[in-house]
Amino acid sequence: xxxxxxxxxxxxxxxxxxxxxxxxxxxxxxxxxxxxxxxxxxxxxxxxxxxxxxxxxxxxxxxxxxxxxxxxxxxxxxxxxxxxxxxxxxxxxxxxxxxxxxxxxxxxxxxxxxxxxxxxxxxxxxxxxxxxxxxxxxxxxxxxxxxxxxxxxxxxxx
Length: 158
Description:
Layout: H1 2-12, H2 18-30, H3 33-59, E1 64-65, E2 73-77, H4 84-92, E3 99-100, E4 113-117, H5 123-143
Antiparallel strand pairs: 1-2, 2-4, 3-4
Helix pairs in contact: 3-5, 4-5
C-alpha cells in the first residue's frame, strides 16, 4: 500500500504549479515572455551541456542515454548488472538523489531506467555529483542484478 501511495505522489508532482502558471500568464500579458524564455534557455542549457560533458567523461560507455530535445531531465538506461532502486539507494547514502524511471511507465515493475534532473544543480556541483553516481553505480552492481526488460520498447508516458 505504501509503495502505491508513493507512486501516486510521484505522479502528482509531475505537473506545473499554479504559481508558475500565473507567472507565465503575466509574462505573456506584458509581452516579456520571449526575453524570459531566452534567459531560461541559457540558464538551463549551460547545466544540461555541463551534465552531458561530465556524464560522457565519467560514465561514457557505461550508460545508455540520448540527449534530450528539451525538459529538465535526462533519461538513462541502467546498465546490465544493476537496477534503479539499488543505484538510487547507494547514491542517496552519499547525498545524491535522482528519480527511478518506474513511476513514468504504465508497467511499474520496470526498474531499468532513471531520470536524472539537472535543473537544480549548480554548475560547481555537477562533476562531484557524477563522481558519486559512478561510485554508487559500482556498488549497486555489486549488490544486485538488473531486472530483465519486459519489452524492448522504451516509452515513458511523460
